[in-house]
Amino acid sequence: MSTTWEPVIGLEIHVQLKTATKMFCRCRNGYGGEPNTQTCPVCLAFPGALPVPNRRAIEETIKLGLALECTIADRAIFHRKNYFYPDLPKAYQISQYDEPLCANGRLVVPTADGEVEIGIVRAHLEEDAAKNVHVATSGRIQGATATLVDFNRGGSPLVEIVTAPNIHSADVAKRFLQLLRQTVVELGLSDAELDKGSMRFDVNVSVRPAGSDELRTRTELKNMNSFNFAAKGIEREIARQIKIYENGGTVDQETLHFDPTAEESAPMRSKEEAQDYRYFPEPDLVPLHPAPEMIEGLRGQIGELPTARIRRIANTLSFYDADVLVTGGLDRLWAAVVDGGADPKEAANVLANAFVATGINPSAVNPEEFTKLVASRSEIPRAVFDDALSHVGDPGFSAEPYVAQKAVSDASALEPVIAAVIEANPGQVEQYRGGKQGLLGFFVGQVMKETGGSADPRVVSELVREQLGA
Amino acid sequence: MAITKEEVLHVARLARLELNDAEVERFQGQLSAILEAVGKVAELDLSDVPPTSHPLEVSNAWGEDVPHTSLTQDEAFANAPERDDDHFRVPPA
Amino acid sequence: MSAGIDTLRLTAEEALALVESGQVSSVELWQAYRDAINEHDGELHAFLTLVDEPDGSGIPIALKDVISTRGVRTTAASKILENYVPVFDATVAAKCRAAGMTLLGKTNTDEFAMGSSTENSAYGPTHNPWDLSRVPGGSGGGSAAAVSAGLAPWALGSDTGGSVKLPSAFCGNVGLRPTYGTVSRFGVVAFASSLDQVGPVTKNVRDNALLYRIISGRDENDSTTVDVPPIALPEGTDLKGLRIGLPRQLNEVEGIEPGVKAACEAALAKAEELGATIEECELPLSVEYGLACYYLVAPAEASSNLARYDGVRYGLRSEGVDFREMVMHTRHDGFGDEVKRRIMLGTYALSSGYYDAFYGTAQKVRTVIKREHDALFERFDVLVSPTCATTAFPLGAKAQDPLAMYLTDVLTIPANMAGLPGLSIPCGLSDGLPVGLQLVGPQFSESTLYRLGHALEQAIGFDVVPERLR
């Protein structure tokens, strides 16, 4: 009897907060500056410099903790995590260890097969490392390289979110990540852009015989910069581990570097010695005691969260449509359009397909104008609609000029054009009448051409069939 | 309590201190004597005692999220052992 | 002696009056001290760096070379910072500047303030002005020797285990180790964050209070600082109502020199005459376990604080084929033996498998020490003992025996572990060498310590000028 295997997946996500300043100094936080222009004695770790926590970063972390239904610690402290690297100027990272700000939460992930609850072990605050660039140098030693360091990013606030290892499929892992991303974006914490590194994640994967609750050796997947890659990488790792076990082997604990173009994930170079981070309470900082009024104030800033909205919208649309709308950040626009009288399903289709293809930020769209456009979609030429759609994000966009270009559907205006087309193409008429019905499109196309695209193709099609059928 | 030569080397590596043989020898003896002395803390029954990591009872010290003026590049690099245009340069990591 | 200024006897308060009344210009005053430095520092070696131009309008000051001074080399007496010139002022340096003070130079110290004799300086030891064959105490021997020999009207030191109190005792100065958190550590080269505190070294108690007023107060750049209650300048000699406790374990410590004991007893008799009540008390655990606790906590924090000296952004850089080797060579070449010992000890105490037994346990012992002191302050306003069991010892006497050197601080360390203020005042001579009396009070009791110190100073009439310089 062959074993059925159950994957056990845990996620560790880093989200860079978009505060104005860094975590422990008031240098500007964010990209754009020339290298090493956003630094100070604190983030360059000059002797004697001391960290001062960013109040807003603490508040944002608590807000996220509340959104993830975490317990907000009555007392939280920072720890030092000690290791040497060029991008870590103090040779320790200020992080949180056994007394994090937020712990024991959950995020409910709706799926087509029902809801799955993913446990949040903790969400804590820490500082980011700086940026190393490894370069080749010319010189005597072939292949020698140097490392260049830019400390602008060093010290940016990061929230680390750790899930319980209770995710059991790549699909749920992917949906969790999408939902979490949407949550932090909506809370205004972060842009959470994978390609810019403002959201990063590592995945721990192991497998076990279904029904067992053992935890087997896990591997860590790093460097996945898209949700689809994550799903693909997880699938691949699950299959690899199952194959190893079924061949009687054992899985090594290792970190795998995901390369989407390769068939297998390559193990990363192992460290020369086992890491010993020597965590201890950061003596330059004092404990955090978030006051209940502060916590309640932050709770009040949280609106209806994505999970709840997917649940609600799935009552009207399919789960898939609801999921796409919410995790794509499209559902508020969708609701406005539907309130304006649009058909819910049609509005969802337009948003999930044509609109998404434009790459326009939904928040830049005026819902009222957008509603007018969607409402007249079937009455204006496709080209006009597409053109309009590509401008809905423009400031001051008005649907009016586009809607005004209604397609011609008046039979009295179209009939002379149709008659002329029929007269000009006797051969095709012959063939059509002889049973080649597929030529209908040819006639409609000719009429559309003659009318410069302004005719309503459905009306033209009806009229052509009537005239030829006679 | 004595510390072994291997432990001295392990700790020195963790702390990124190169040691020659003579230094390992010397530090092994000295550190063993010091560890013997500080190991005294183990004599106390501290099962109900909370740790003190800070002498004052202060909390919630933080700064507002308002940018200050950063250093100029020249100030940032003023003491740098090796500058490569606008980066700090180090041997390959 | 320039312009009739006797730098050996002039107090800072008197110097300030001379400048404010226009009798002496700020530049003349600065020059008088500079002349004294030129005359005596060759034999004392109190200074590591001299400033060549006065840059204020008030009276001069000397700063221990762990205090960052913008544009003035700051070495912490280490080779690793030999050419380091800060681009920013420590908060205490900025406060001195803001008060118009002119910087004379940077004073010698044990490397990174780790030591009790100033012999661990990478640039050679400082000599005690009372006897050039003896140490000035440490780590702040340079500041103490400078004030004692009239090379500066006052100076700042830093005290982690006794580095202000001990040199003040050995050189016949008044030295305050303030309540932890009352003086900013920002810009002060860190040794042990939860213990380091900058304090004034002066000729008399009023000067000390004046300087403490200037440097103390909450600093937004140091999260561990607090608002400080107003500091009363001491007047008069009435000690009625003051309850003095004499911890037996401090006053009868093993190895106490008879001359030290006699000088302290004589001072206590004066206190009684002035109206104070004196009663013996017990501080058993703090004295028995204080030193062990300190030599776990301080090196652990130091091992992390000194990790930033990696040859990347400032300081010494040695060669290496890769980053790791470069860092190992840099730290080997840049740190002296005592610093290496403490880094290794601290790394060990924090490392995996030893944390609980060493660092974790020491943190609990710290609680025990704090509680033991708290209990005594229910009954007493001040605890009095010698600052050190001996007077200044000969150069080289303990240099080869780290543990013997550590024991020098056995009387100053317990109060430091509890974050308590301690004032060392000279209370007499033993074989021609100054004896220090340590006054310890509850947190924020500096005004009380100054009141008692000032009264005793008047009653004792100690001549602060070293006999060989009179």
From TrEMBL, chain A:
- Quote the InterPro entries the UniProt record gives: Asn/Gln-tRNA_amidoTrfase_suB/E, Asn/Gln-tRNA_Trfase_suB/E_cat, Asn/Gln_amidotransferase, Asn/Gln_tRNA_amidoTrase-B-like, GatB, GatB_Yqey_C_2, Gln-tRNA_amidoTrfase_suB_CS, Gln_synth/guanido_kin_cat_dom
List, in alphabetical order, the GO biological process terms annotated in this UniProt record. Answer: glutaminyl-tRNAGln biosynthesis via transamidation; translation
What is catalyzed by this enzyme?
A: L-glutamyl-tRNA(Gln) + L-glutamine + ATP + H2O = L-glutaminyl-tRNA(Gln) + L-glutamate + ADP + phosphate + H(+); L-aspartyl-tRNA(Asn) + L-glutamine + ATP + H2O = L-asparaginyl-tRNA(Asn) + L-glutamate + ADP + phosphate + 2 H(+)
Keywords for this entry?
Answer: ATP-binding, Ligase, Nucleotide-binding, Protein biosynthesis
Asn/Gln amidotransferase domain location is 332-468
Provide a Gene Ontology MF annotation, just one: ATP binding
Q: Which family does it belong to?
A: Belongs to the GatB/GatE family. GatB subfamily.
Q: Which HAMAP family match?
A: GatB
Name this protein carries in UniProt: Unannotated protein
Source taxonomy: unclassified sequences, metagenomes, ecological metagenomes
UniProtKB/TrEMBL annotation, chain B:
Output this protein's name: Unannotated protein
Give the Pfam families listed for this entry: GatC
Q: Which lineage is the organism of this entry classified under, starting from the top rank?
A: unclassified sequences, metagenomes, ecological metagenomes
* GO biological process annotation, one example: regulation of translational fidelity
Q: Which HAMAP family match?
A: GatC
In this chain, the stretch annotated as Disordered covers: 47-67
UniProtKB/TrEMBL annotation, chain C:
GO cellular component term, pick one:
glutamyl-tRNA(Gln) amidotransferase complex
Record domain Amidase: where? 57-449
**Which molecular-function annotation in GO is an example for this chain?**
ATP binding
The record's InterPro entries line, in alphabetical order, gives: Amidase, Amidase_dom, AS_sf, GatA
- The reply to whether Iron-sulfur figures as a keyword in the UniProt entry is no
Q: Which SUPFAM superfamilies match?
A: Amidase signature (AS) enzymes
Q: Where are the transmembrane segments?
A: none
The biological processes this protein is annotated with in GO are:
translation
Which is one Pfam family of this protein? Amidase
Q: Kindly state which keywords UniProt assigns to this record, in alphabetical order.
A: ATP-binding, Ligase, Nucleotide-binding, Protein biosynthesis
Output this protein's name: Unannotated protein
Q: Which organism is it from?
A: freshwater metagenome
